[in-house]
Write a structure and sequence with these properties.
Helix 2 runs antiparallel to helix 3. Helices cover about 40% and strands about 15% of the residues. The chain is an alpha/beta fold. It starts with about 25 loop residues before the first strand and ends in a 5-residue tail after the last helix. The protein contains twelve helices and nine strands. The protein has a nine-stranded mixed beta sheet with strand order 1-4-3-5-2-6-7-8-9, with helices on both faces.
Length: about 375
Amino acid sequence: MFDFFRKKPPPTGAPAPDSPVPEARPVDVAPPAPASGLARAPESDAGVGITDAPAATTAEPEQPIAATSAPTRSWKERLKAGLGLSRAKLGTALTSVFRRRKLDDDALEELEDALIEGDVGVDAARHLIADLKLRWKRAGDDASPRGELAAALVDLVAPLEKPLVIGAERPFVIMLAGVNGAGKTTSIGKLAKWLQQQNLTVLLAAGDTFRAAAREQLAAWGERHGVAVIQQTSGDAASVMFDAVNAAKARGVDVVLADTAGRLPTQAHLMEELRKIKRVIGRAQEGAPHEVLLVVDANTGQNALAQVKAFDAAAGLTGLIVTKLDGSAKGGVVAAIAKQHPVGLKFIGVGEGPDDLRPFVARDFVEALLPADD
Ligand SMILES: Nc1nc2c(ncn2[C@@H]2O[C@H](COP(=O)(O)OP(=O)(O)OP(=O)(O)O)[C@@H](O)[C@H]2O)c(=O)[nH]1
Ligand SMILES: [Mg+2]
């Protein structure tokens, strides 16, 4: 049971729209746990049917959502541990240059190769080396290569440091999109907690209507944080979103987090569906969605850049969440995004626990990414 806690099979895309659709069933509202700050919606709420919480809310999961990360470690320590693989990949080459404490042509070439190898990308690596040369000249021979490279890297990725700001609109609607398995649903679970810590009430919209496991996975996160989940047992993602926005209005909820099914940018009909979901949210509330976030798995390396470009073209992104920086050696891709298609990086994920998502801070990120020079 509870296969949804396990990693799902490789991306195949959600079913085509012409797949057989089961008979339409009423919208379910998984009520929040009793401890929730949210009141259960009345029967007439937004015209949706209400059912009791799904079984997922009562049974013991076989492989539960990852436990809260060790509270004894600070976020910076966790970030550093999380970026360990990326740092190691950059490590040997960078450290040997750093230790020579001199930036001649050979050293610069070694650095450039190491950066490209570390998924920073050719463009960003060239930019960094050119910047480094200027900085080195300015700083003089006493400067540290690591210090100068860190400064150049911070300058490059700093424009991505655009924290999520919850505006005055109510509900404030945040829609998440991305390829299959990128970490959308998990990020929503983590985000719900983060928003609650800002004293905001949250409602989740289960817009991945293709798989029952996807709804159950979201319901489990809702249960965990005492947050209501609007879902339908079948039907159209756009109509779930419409119901969710209206339910949030009726309940006076601050933020709606809208989950969507995974899709590849090459699946034209699914990219069209994403645009439709966005339009319908806008019909439920003018100006919504207020944020359209692309969730990107850091492991995809340079392909992440292609995803950012394609989803931005299709859905008009307002920000990114880069996940799985912990298990990835490709953290350098953040620099590639900054150089080639900068879209604000709202959050980074370094684990599966509810606390493993934090706003992106350029300096902290660079400090964790670059190996030491001693
Ligand atoms: N290590 C690690 N694992 C993560 C992170 N974020 C998500 N995951 C894991 O990645 C897997 C996929 O996450 P989901 O949240 O289901 O991904 P999704 O994008 O919703 O997937 P689909 O709905 O199938 O498209 C799960 O096993 C998550 O626990 C992260 O930051 N670090
Ligand atoms: Mg999902």
